[in-house]
Amino acid sequence: MNHSLPSAPLPFLSGLSAHWGWLLARGISAILFGVIALAWPRWTVLALALVWGAYAIVDGAFALIYGARGGGTRRWSYIFVGLIGVIAGFVAFFWPNETAIILVMIIGFWALAIGVFEIIYAFQYRRAIAHPWAVGLSGLLSAVVGFFIVMFPGAGALSLIWLIAAYAFVYGFLMIVAALQLRRWRNTHPAMA
User: Fold this and answer.
1) Which domains does the chain have, with CATH numbers?
2) End-to-end CA distance of the chain
3) What is the DSSP letter of 98?
4) Which residues cross the membrane (predicted)?
5) In angstroms, rounded to a whole number, what is the distance separating the alpha carbons of residues 60 and 78?
6) Dihedral sign, CA of 159, 164, 167, 172?
7) Among 36, 37, 89, 38, which Cα is nearest to 59's?
8) Residues in Cβ contact with 174 at an 8 Å cutoff, skipping those fewer than 6 apart
9) How far is CA 167 from the centre of its chain?
10) Max Cα–Cα distance, the chain, nearest Å
């Protein structure tokens, strides 16, 4: 079986593999957020807003840094997703007393936007990257969860906490898998890294 990649995407892949750690950090931070959400499921919406706001700011910052440091030809999409995350995090952080519906809608649109960008990324680079299924699956998961949250914003805060925690665990796991596959590709192709 020939695992060679086309020559055109290699500069992109080698640049992407150099930043596998950012993907790993995003995955770990998502799992940590899930642990925190599960550990205290009866937190008020205020606490959820603060914890989620902090997570969205950190995740957005990682995406911004990755985009700024050379996220390939689609670095603008990482910068856009990073800005959405940071802005949504600050909105949740500075206006935590707003209604639960607003927070639910912010989380829903944020997850939907991330999902769409990750699905597009997975399709565009499916032949050039070693992990398109992990990124595409995490994007589909984000889009489905975001769509569900946007369509049913009146769900109870406790249900939302459990849903978001489960999403964070699965999303974090998939990002870690993608990061480790990029790292493995980089280690098996040292001349291109």
Assistant:
1) 18-188 (1.25.40)
2) 23
3) S
4) 20-40, 46-66, 78-95, 101-121, 133-154, 160-182
5) 9
6) negative
7) 89
8) 27, 134, 135, 137, 138, 141
9) 10
10) 57
The two three-digit tokens of residue 114, written as one number = 């991330």
Give the separation between CA 127 and CA 61, rounded to whole angstroms.
Answer: 28
pLDDT tens by residue, 109-152: 888 888 888 888 888 777 766 677 787 888 888 898 888 888 87
- Give the C-alpha separation, 77 to 116, whole Å: 11
Among all chains, which residue has been given the structure tokens 């020559």?
7
Joined tokens for residue 77? 């999409």
pLDDT digits (tens, 9 = 90+) for 55-69: 889 888 988 888 888
Helix H or strand E segment including 40: none
- pTM exceeding 0.70: no
